[in-house]
Amino acid sequence: MVLTRRLLYVALALSVVVVALPVAWAWWTCLTLLVGLVVVDMMLAGSPRQVRVERVPGAAVRLSRTTTAESVLHHSGRRRLRGSVKDGWQPSAGSLRPVTPVDIPPGGLRRVSVPLRPSRRGDLASQHAGGPFPGPAGARRPAGGAPFQAPAAGAASVPVPQAPAVEAAEAA
Known about the structure:
- The chain has three helices and nine strands; from the N terminus they run H-H-E-E-E-E-E-E-E-E-E-H.
- It is α+β, with helices and mostly antiparallel strands.
- The strands form three sheets. It has a four-stranded antiparallel beta sheet with strand order 4-3-7-8, with no helix packed on it. The chain has a three-stranded antiparallel beta sheet with strand order 1-2-5, with no helix packed on it.
């Protein structure tokens, strides 16, 4: 379980109540409220285990040119997923915006585009994608390892071919 600032602010507000009323029942009441809020929030949060990633094959791109890698997120859960997705491109892929905010309705899908500017030649592939999907108060469900996996290797590759010698000679 991961907690965010929103839940911290609720805990700070409840601590003001505990300081203002220094009796045992106020402390226990605030603690029960906070734990109850975390449990309800985790139940309202969407599950990242119910997200499937489908890669859209991209075209070849020249070295240091910009391209876009696209993925489609299929959500089969019953709760809306709000959060962000980070596509796991290696650093040499030059991901210009690796984290993308998403809002996926129950049973829906969203297309996520990540601009890339490769800095080395060869096939580049993203093997995983993941992200936090907190509930309304900021608590996140545990994902049990990687939240969701991309398809097999090669399905998400962005080939960066070496420029032919003829083009290199013409440029000189």
